[in-house]
Amino acid sequence: MAIVTTHTTGQPTIDQDHIRMMKVDNFIDFDTYNADAADVIELVKIPAGAIVTNVKVRFVTAEDSTCTGDIGDGDDPNGYNDAIDLESAAGTMLNTVAADAYSVGRYYAAADTIDLTLDDAADTCQLYVVAEYYITDRMAS
């Protein structure tokens, strides 16, 4: 049996210099910018060719009344987190978990945003969002 050391492009398998790990973040302040139930808040922008591996949320200030929401994108509004509680105490961290649709990551062929869809109005909560993704110029097409 032969050992194949090149891809169809002729590049060695050890050529990994085109891959970049990126993190994008945003601070969301509902105390300053109130939002209504069913509003879709664009949290972070994701470029074409990215593979999002995780979305993290850290609560800075809790919402002062019942408020839940979903984190996802235009294809699956709760793909990263389903029914998060915006009344979570300051310092609480949320992460994409195994039960979520995008728990193993998601490839974006076209640029998109990761969104928060509110189930209730929000006027107090402050949160910090971080999305982690890999991108390579070889994947964009």
Order of helices and strands: EEEEEEEEE
**Binned strand content:** over 45%
Structure class = mainly beta
- Average pLDDT works out at 87
Q: Which regions have little confidence, pLDDT < 50, spanning 5+ residues?
A: none
| Gyration radius from CA atoms, angstroms | 18 Å
Largest sheet: 5 strands, antiparallel
CATH fold descriptor: Jelly Rolls
Q: What number of structural domains do the residues give? A: 1
List keywords for this structure.
mainly beta, 45% strand, Jelly Rolls, 0% helix, five-stranded antiparallel beta sheet, 141 residues
How would you summarize this macromolecular structure in one to three sentences?
The chain has 141 residues and is an all-beta fold. The chain has strands at residues 19-29, 40-46, 50-61, 68-72, 81-85, 93-95, 106-108, 112-118, 126-136. The model has no long low-confidence stretch (mean pLDDT 87).
Describe this structure in words.
- The protein has 141 residues and is mainly β.
- The protein has one domain (23-136): Sandwich (Jelly Rolls).
- It has no helices and 9 strands.
- The chain has strands at 19-29, 40-46, 50-61, 68-72, 81-85, 93-95, 106-108, 112-118, 126-136.
- Strand 4 and strand 5 form a beta hairpin.
- The chain is elongated, with a radius of gyration of 18 Å.
- It starts with 18 loop residues before the first strand and ends in a 5-residue tail after the last strand.
- The model has no long low-confidence stretch (mean pLDDT 87).
